[in-house]
Input
Amino acid sequence: MEKNIAVIKGDGIGPEIVTEAMKVLDRVAEKFGHKFNYEQLLMGGCSIDANGVPLTEETVERCKAADAVLMGSIGGNTTTSPWYKLPADKRPEAGLLGLRKALGLFANLRPCLLFSQLSEACPLKAEIAAKGFDMLIMRELTGGLYFGARKTEEINGVMTAVDTLEYNENEIRRIAVKAFDVAMQRRKKVTSVDKANVLDSSRLWRKVVEEVAKDYPEVTLEHMLVDNAAMQLVKDPAQFDVMVTENMFGDILSDEASMITGSIGMLASASMNESSFGLYEPSGGSAPDIAGQNKANPIATILSAAMLLRYSFKMETEAGAVEAAVNKTLEAGFRTGDIMSDGMTLVSCSEMGTKISDNI
Ligand code: IPM
Ligand code: MG
Output
């Protein structure tokens, strides 16, 4: 098959980790007889430097024209980078939020699983890590606090800021449907996370999720308050299969979930629209402190490329081959610094990419 992939390398470690994911995709193409054409686009800080804005209409249009988007990471050091002297809507993150909205990417899938080879890197107690876990966070990505009206103003001499958390039933329904659909292909359990003891938006969320659940009698639904969910993630992560939640809760809980996998450098993600179009990026940030040093862990980006093959190109065998190659490379003891432990072999970002592609 011939496919066009829009590539946004971005800032910080982005270019390094995406280069390794492209190395792996090229190996897949060679091995399975496909042709992947790449078009590199700017977004984030690099786009501010080149174009004065974090996201151009050109980048949006080129992404829409592609079969899928592969992305690295955007942004810089928020205290030292000049990008953060700009107004909030001109900063790197505004580019990413704008792109998610423009492409209609409302469903963010973040699979979190503990690779048995990395149980030493897992900060949980050994007896909890020994049980393992394999869950998927389905985060709503184009609504809630991230996109609600906001303003900062002086009222009677007092500076006051407002952010708005708004959801309508259609936005809740479509993400709930995605969550139940993926649960049907997994262990058939959905945990819907909300703050229904306080928030109206959460009470509507709960009601709509319950309506959707009626169409999936085989799936067990449970509701969990977000503060309890944060606790349960470190106490007993094995209880979770699919966790569905609104934008902000999902942002926070997915970082927590990534940490218990050993490193944020292991966590892939897919952001999808109604159909099979998606943007694939690691869940972690641009790590400006280690940028340009060939030290970053490319595995999350490589696993994101595997999700791209699976969800956008329907290449299940190829996706499985990438995941198996990651496993084999870890099994052979190769580790980047973030997941290094005694007795293992420390490798650079590019060496990790080469090892994984050689194992396909
Ligand atoms: C993420 C990131 C983004 C988010 C930032 C960079 C805007 O933290 O993808 O989780 O908050 O969604
Ligand atoms: Mg985040």
